[in-house]
């Protein structure tokens, strides 16, 4: 996992369970 976008890092973990639409 590339840690370039740290802001979306938490969203990436949640996306494996729930799909988060990009705002």
How would you describe this protein?
With 23 residues, the protein is mainly alpha-helical. The protein has one helix and no strands. The model has no long low-confidence stretch (mean pLDDT 62).
Q: What's this entry about, in short?
A:
Residues 1-23 are annotated as: Disordered. This protein is mostly helical. The chain has 1 helix and no strands.
Distance between the amino and carboxyl termini? 22 Å
> Looking at the structure, what is the overall shape?
flat
Q: Count up the helices.
A: 1
Share of residues in helices: 25-40%
The largest sheet, given as strand count, sense and whether it forms a barrel, is: none
What is the string of SSEs from the N terminus onward? Answer: H
Round the mean pLDDT to the nearest integer and report it: 62
Beta-strand percentage range: under 5%
Rg calculated over all Cα atoms: 9 Å
The poorly predicted ranges are none
Number of DSSP strand runs: 0
Structural class by sheet pairing and helices: mainly alpha
């Amino acid at each position: 996992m590339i840690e370039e976008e740290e802001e979306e890092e938490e969203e990436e973990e949640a996306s494996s369970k729930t799909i988060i639409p990009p705002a």
